[in-house]
Every structure is written in C-alpha cells, then in structure tokens.
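Narrative summary of target 7.
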Amino acid sequence: MSVLIVGLVIFLGLHSVRIFAEEWRKARIAQMGEKGWKSAYSVLSIIGLALIVWGYGIARREPVTLWSPPAWAPHVAGVLTLVSFILFPAAYVRGNHFKALLKHPMVISVVLWAFAHLLANGTLNAVLLFGAFLVWALADFAAARRRDRVESIVYPNGMLSRDVIPVVVGVVAWIAFAFFFHEWLIGVKPMA
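Modeled conformation, tokenized:
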C-alpha cells in the first residue's frame, strides 16, 4: 500500500500546487521558464502515475475488503463513467454547453469517475485511490471556480454543434474502455 500512497502524494500533490501554492508555482515558472516547469511537472506526474498503477496492482494481490458493493453499484458506475468520459473531452472543445454550464468539465469528470469507482469497489486500496482522487477533484473544482471569480472569467454560451464532438468522442472511448480495455488493462470486466 505504501507504493500507492507515495504515488498519490506525488501525483495529486503536484496537481494540487495550483490549489494551495499558486504564488510558489508562479515563482517556479519565472525561475525555470514555462518549458522547464512543464517538463519537470510532466516527468514527476508520470512517475507519480506509474507508482499509483504499480502500487494499486500490488495492493490488489491481497485486498482488504471494507464492504461488499450492492448489486446495482456497477450499473450506476457504468452510467456515471459514461458521463465522465463525455465531460473529459468537453474541457478541450470550445463553445460547448458542458463547459458553459460546468465551467470545468474535466474536474467534474474526475469527480464522477472517482465516485463511480467508490460505489463499485469496497476494498481499502480502492477507497484510498478513488477517495483521494475524489477529494482532490472537489478541492480543485472549488479552487478553479474561486480563480474564475477573482479573474472575472466568463464562459461563452454553448452551441449544440460543439456538443457533438465531446459526446461522440466520449461515448466511443467509453465503449472501447468499458467493453475491451478495462479488462485488458485493469483485469476487471465492468460490463459483465
């Protein structure tokens, strides 16, 4: 479990710098330059993510069961992850309704993804992993909305034609992952 925890601390800690230490972040960017900061950020993120994956795999070998998820949980998780897969690309498509309404659809995507997996998993390692991501995403969303207010950011109204891209990309990615890649990569068939 310690490898998982170290990975979470590195990955989520790094992704929390903008939440808790914006001035420090700006000073590092000024010192290292934009490319230097992004390079260091990327390398450390990859290390943290690799440790999370490795640590979660180790922890799954001897799971500590905290509860047994109800029979309906995987079905609800499936719907929540579908919405999550649609919201994730919505963050990158300008002028869509998801971004206009939610402001930060990627972070909401992480909230839904983490919550869905908490519903469908009752092991200690799952609670640690998905609970950490859920708490981080909620804190990040609150911080992002606070920055929006301070900087008077206004999101443009969405256009239906711009909604199609994240919906199609999200649904196709969800189908591919839920029915094929999840079992291959994670070892669990969520749509069984």
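Residues 22-61 form the longest helix (40 residues).
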